Amino acid sequence: MAAPEAASSIVAVNESGQLVVGFDLDMTLIDTVPGFRDVLVALGDELGVEFPVEEMTSKLGPPLDILLAPYLPADQIAAAGERFRSLYPDHAITNVPAFAGAHDALAAVRKHAGRVVVVTGKYAANAQLHVDHVGFEIDHLEGWVWGVGKADVLMREGASIYVGDHVHDVEGALAAGVVSVSVLTGGCTRAELEDAGTHVILDDLSQFPAWLDGHLAGTSERRPQSLG
């Protein structure tokens, strides 16, 4: 792998001088596994399909149609996805908690007079239900964007940092030219995230406030900076 660039070489704030931090939702801010598992079971019961739920929820992140593709005929995937999204509010909101440190991470951005933007591959209406349920204070939510597609949103919103758990979150951050911060609460390993080119690796969001203070003070080290 090429020699890593310094995370501090990327601007810490946007051209207006305001800090804007983007966050992924599933497995970054919230532990989606219990809810996702219950929706898959309900969907499987309706379709007469026994999904390998534990396997399917072991590495959440890719779009739903990719997740369902190995187990359903191609011509059924779109309808199954729609049914999954309709089942979701009744099966996957109240049983999904915020990760430890998530509220503090958002508060850390606020402490620096920053904006919080949630950029997620999840259907926006269901993502908003999660945000409301756990009480996240955010400024903007963008749903149904994945991988490098997140770059357009991050650039439009003026983000300088994107926090995620998946290698495709790293792709989106790098495509936008912003600092990629990765947490190990999802299904991707430290090695996978490093290979994807992330700038910073944290065990979880409880370490984010201290990292952000240091980053904004210009003390960030060369990537991959690991606090784990």
Q: What is the tally of beta strands?
A: 7
Shape: globular
Helix amount: 40-55%
Sheet of most strands: 7 strands, parallel
Count of domains = 2
Q: What average pLDDT do the residues reach?
A: 91
Indicate the multimeric state: single chain
What is the fold-level CATH name, i.e. the topology of the largest domain?
Rossmann fold
Order of helix and strand elements from N to C terminus: EHHHHHEHEHEHEHEHE
Give the helix/strand class: alpha/beta
Gyration radius from CA atoms, angstroms: 17 Å
CATH superfamily of the largest domain: HAD superfamily/HAD-like
CATH class of the largest domain: Alpha Beta
Kindly describe this structure.
This protein is α/β, with parallel strands linked by helices and 228 residues long. It has 2 domains: 9-31 and 97-226, Rossmann fold; 33-91, DNA polymerase, domain 1, CATH 1.10.150. The protein is built from 10 helices and 7 strands. A 7-stranded parallel beta sheet has the order 3-2-1-4-5-6-7, sandwiched between helices. The longest helix has 15 residues, at 33-47. It is globular, with a radius of gyration of 17 Å. The two termini are 21 Å apart. Residues 1-6 have low confidence and may be disordered.
Main features:
228 residues; alpha/beta; Rossmann fold; DNA polymerase, domain 1; 2 domains; seven-stranded parallel β-sheet; 10 helices; 7 strands; globular
Short description:
With 228 residues, the chain is of the alpha/beta class.
Blueprint (SSEs and pairs):
Layout: E1 20-23, H1 33-47, H2 53-56, H3 64-68, H4 77-91, H5 102-111, E2 115-119, H6 124-134, E3 140-142, H7 150-157, E4 161-164, H8 167-176, E5 179-183, H9 190-196, E6 200-202, H10 208-216, E7 225-226
Parallel strand pairs: 1-2, 1-4, 2-3, 4-5, 5-6, 6-7
